Structure formats: C-alpha cells, structure tokens
Please model this.
Amino acid sequence: MRRDQDCNGIDHLLARREFLAGSAAGVMGANAIGLGTLTSPASAAALEQQQKRVLQIYLQGGVSQLESWDPKPGTQYGGPFQAIPTSVPGMHISELLPHTAKRMHLLSVVRSINSKIGDHRQGMLFMEKGRRAGEYPYVGSVASRYLAPENSDLPGYIHISKRGINDSTSAFLGARHAQLKLDGDKPPENLIAPSGIEDSADEAREKLRIQFNRRFTKQRSPALTDVYNSSYEAAAKLMKRKAIFEGKALAKDLDRFGQHDFGRHCLLARDLLENGATCVKVTHHGYDTHAENFNFHLEQLGEFDKTFSMLLDDLHDRGMLESTLVMVYSEMGRTPKINSKYGRDHWGTAWSMAMGGCGIQSGAIIGKTNLDGTKVAEREVDPGHLFHTYLSAVGLDSSADHDLSGRSIPIGDPAAEPISELLS
Amino acid sequence: MNPTPAIDPIQTHQIAELKHRNALTTLRVDPTGRYVAAGAQDLDVQVWDLVDGNQFTLTGHKSWVRSIDFSADGNLLYTACWGGVVKVWDLSHDIPGMKRSFQAHQGAARWVRLSPDGKRLATGGNDRLVKVWNAETGELEQPFSGHQRHVYGVDFHPNGEHLISQDLMGVVIVWNLKTLVKQRTIDASMMTGYDKKFAADMGGARDLQFNADGQLWASAGITKVVNSFAGIQDPIIVVFDWTTGEAKQQLRAAEKFKGVAWAVRFHPEGFTIGAGAEKSGKGEIWFYRDKQESAFHTFAMKSAARALDLVGNDRLAVAHADGFVRLYQMTAKSSEPEQDGKEAESSAT
Model:
C-alpha cells in the first residue's frame, strides 16, 4: 500500500501545504540542474556579484489596457478617460495612473500581446509558464531555481495574496521551488516553535527526523523524502527569519504606500526583496470588470498607482532596481467594446503589460494596436515571448534546456524568443 | 376634438425612437418639453427638437458627458463630463453654440444642476468636492468639502437655500447655501455595498431629485451587492423625508431583476417613476404609488435604461444603452394617428 505522503504531522510545524504545492511533478530530479548550464557566460559573473530578483505585480482579473497602458481617448471604444503624458517624451498612459506616469522612464510598455486566450485560468497559466499547455514551472519557480543563492534563507518564490487557490507552480523543478503563498501580510502559520520545546530538544528532534529519513530512503525512492525535506528546510529558514514577518510597517511607510491591503503587501514585498528573497509576487485583485469597468478601474488603479509608484521609488532609491526585474501584468486584457453594464469583458487579442528594472530597456514602447484597439497592428507577441524576455532580462539563457536526468526540456517555448529590443 | 386622455401608467407604450450611433449615458428634457439632450459614449451631446423633429450635435467635450441640465426656458443647456469640465450651451440661436466652458473638478464632474432661480449651478465630482458656481459668469462661488469619496449626485432644494449631495458610500450631506456650512448628514448606506471578493466599493446616487414641494427627495442606485463586477446586485430607489432625513420608502424592482436603478422622477399626479438596467442588457420602467415599495406596474424594454425624464406630464424619454432615445406615452393608445409634434418624433432618426 502506498503511504499517504501528506500525513506525517509536518503541518503542525508550518503550513506545509504551501511548500508542497508543486510536489506532484516535483519529485523528478529536483537537484539535477546546474546553474552554470543556464546563465549566459557574460551574466554568470554578475549574478555572483549581485543577486537578481523578480518582482511580479499581478493585476488579477484582467486590467483594461485601455484604462492603463494603451489609452485611446476619443475613439469608438476609448471610454471616458483621458491619456496623460509621462516622463518619457511621446509616451502617454491613462489618466488613472498619474503617479506611475511620472516614473515611466523606469519602465517600458508592451502594447501588442495577443495570447488568443480569454479565460482567467488558462490566460494566467500562459503568462506564468510561457506555454499554452503542459506541466512547466512558473516564472517565479524558474527564478527560484536558477537565481536564488544556494544558501538563501528565504524561500525562492513568495506570493502575497489575500485569496485565490494555491497553484502548483514548480512542476519538475521540485517542491523547494514551489510558491510559498502568504495570506496577505500575515506571517506563515505556526512560524514560532511550540512553547516548551527548548532549542536543544528541537535540534535533537531534527537529527532524529533526518536519521529516519535516511533509513526510509535506503528502501525507497529518495523522491518521496525530497518533498518533506524541502518543507522542513524552508520551515527552518523561515523560523530563523521570522522577524521580517513580525515587524510592523512603519507609519511613515504606510502613509506613503497606503493604508490598505495592497499597500501593506507591497511593503512586505519590498522588505522580502531587500532581505534576499528572489521572486516576490503581489496579487492585486479586482480587475474582472464585466460591469462598471470605469468606476472600478478608478477605484482599483487609484489604489495601485500610488502604492506601486512608492515601491518603484524605494527599489530605485535603494539601488535594487537594476538587479530587480519588475513585471506588472494580468492574465488577459479587456474587450474594447463596452457592454450594456458599462463593463468590458475578457479579451486576449490585443492587450498590454509593463515591465522594467533589471535587464529591461527603460522608456520603450513595444508594439502597437490599431486605432480602436481591436487588433495588434505592429510587433505581435504572446506570453511565450514575454517569458523568454523575463528570463533573458535577469541573465538566464531561456533557450537552454532544463538539465534533467535523462530528459531535455527547453526552459522557454522553442517556438518563441525574447523581445530583443526590450532588453538592455 | 378628443378630450385629453387620462394618464395611466399601465397603458404606457412606445411612441418614437430617436437614434444615435453610440450607447447613451444620460438624458435630460428641457422644462418646456421641446428639447431632449443626451450624452453618449463619445464626446458629443445630441439634441433632438421634439417640435420640429430636427436633431443637432454639440461638440467640444473631450470626455463622455455624464450629466445634463436645462434652464427653465430651455434656451441654455449645461453639461458635465468625465474630464471634469462643465460647458454651457446656448440653444436660442439658429446655430446653437458653446457659451462657456470651465474646469469644474479634478477628475470626473459627475453631476450638474441649475438652481431653481437659475442663478447658480451646483456640481459634484471625483475630487470629492461639491461646488456652487455663478451660472451667468461661470465663477466659483463656493466649494464644499466634506465627502470622503467620489460625489455622485447633487440637487438643489426647491427653496433654493439648500443643496444635497450623495457620495459613493451613501453619505448624503445637506449644505446650507446661506450660511455656507454643512447643515446635516444623512445615512443612505443601504445604497452602497462592499464586494468582498473583489475588495471594492460600489454605490452612489445614479439619479437624485427633489419633488416639487421639497418635502421629499429620491435617489436611485443599487443595494444588496453580491457580485458587482458581474452586475449582480439589486436596483433601489430610496425616497427620503426632507424634514426628518429618514428613508421613507425603499422602492424595489422584481426580485429576479439584477442591475442598477439609473433614474427616478416624481410625477405631478403623485406616483413615482424609476428606470433601470438589468445585467442581461434589458431595461425596465417602474411605477410606484405612495407608501408602496413594490411597483404597481413594470414596463419592460428591450435595452437597458441609463436615464429617464418626463416630457410634459404624459410622456417619458429614456436614454438606452443601444443608442436610442425612446419616447413612451403614459396614456391609452390612440385609435387615430398621432398628431402634431408626435408625428415628427416618430420619424426623427
């Protein structure tokens, strides 16, 4: 009889499921990949000097490209909002992003994404994996695997979100690189060791666990224990760094970032990145605006704009932006056509995202949509191209294979390539 | 000569369609009943002359027009847009034109109303301010601050001495125009909801109007938010008592109707009229008697209603999401062909 891998009491130490999310496919050769095979020679030295990081700001639900990065005021489907100039001459974005507009010299915009997917789940998976289908790791798990220092004392991929399911993100990269999902800015559950257990007792208990694991492994596939070991290692590291989660945000920071969930989440993201986290994803919910698109974008982007701008400022001022790739993205865009509820519906045909920081040419506009925003007019790309671009920007060779024992799996979709003109 | 038919909401029927190429956002009928002016999901204002059947377009806004009002004689038209600009149009000349334009708010100007004496304009906007302007010169007379969220609607009390405003969160403020201070705050929080799933607020007055003697005012909007991002909430029209500030009636649509109440009017014969948009894209007009919270008659329409106004006492003009202004008659169908202006209305496209 197969043992129940999920029932060994680890949950009582930490919310173990967070680390097991990628375990289904994670038992294959998790430690078989060498960093040297993936970084380009030129960037290998730089990676050693300064850790590359990824900050993902995920606008869940599908932000409207017309109310954000690709405004078309006065056109048939342009909506009621104006376009405003930015700090990049000739570049205009929506008036709903006045703070971001002043910082566009730190970012670039891709206005020509055609994913051909108008579905939340499938669109998100395409954006995260760079492939339309199949068991492949999310960009955060790839970053964790190839960018996180071996001795990193924080999980390589941390996702801050108040809701949503816990995805299986690491595929064959192993549980160690699966997403740790935090419930907002709350510390992970059971971060503190149970009272009454002295450090010495805890160490003895850990040695005993390792001893049992070794004995167990001799008789079975080591893959069965890899998942558990990854959980324990991550838990132990987190417990040592619990101060990051326990510290309360300073009032002056909250005043700048905003006294709301997204403000607190972005402050935590900043602190995690500053303390060595490799990939941090912050999800801002509330863009699936089938009704009241304009009022809701006023509310949601009003919250996003100031907070994101403050986060960008802090990364820039602290010298982290040149080593941190910043992505602002959704799983799709929204229809140019406005429905009877003042809403915009799902749209994968012609939409936008922004990125900046590490390895990204700043102030660029990639691609173009037609006058009404109903089609891509120039430089069509899809999330496969974007996936290559993210990894290339942080110095990874996205055309290389994952070096798995007995298998050859390209990191990025071989049918796509990086958006070369977006890379610095 | 036939006697004037009695007004009977149960007999309501469509008598004309006035077509525009884009979805309409708002509508107002001038007090003389001659002009219907509508904003749309474009930058223009469409005006139909119900007397001669002509139609003309006023251009100049750089954003969608959200609110419209007329002077008592119908010669001046006031429009407010999402760009925060208010424009004054003179319709008295052969070629109507813009008389004045000013930046009233930072962010959208959601509402504009002319005072009963025609001397002042009130506006409300996304900068959370209510402002009173000299209607003749366009000069700002008094800004009022006190709302914490976007101001959705404003209206003058018929006595001309007070102004009410309602914001996204259902906060209604009564402003005293003599002392220039906030006189009282009234709770309309039943007209707002927090969508937990999407972590956003929805609410606000989608229409706001006093009755003729000022003893009541009514506000149209939403309640019982379930999933406002999909348009799943109930429409509501709340009738408030001016003296006590209490919600006197909460007028509802049928339970199956999920959407937004976009309009309310007090009819001189004592009933109240509302109109709304269902999430399916269809619309309804509701008729309520005093002291009853369910409609005594509901008139179904094929397209969502986004505004409604009275044309005289016997007709209704409704702005629809399919781009049409439709005129509805609240009397029994005539057995004879429609006479005079009504023929022109029917043919105006």
Summary: The longest helix of chain B spans residues 341-347. Residues 9-347 of chain B form a domain with the Methylamine Dehydrogenase; Chain H fold (CATH 2.130.10.10).
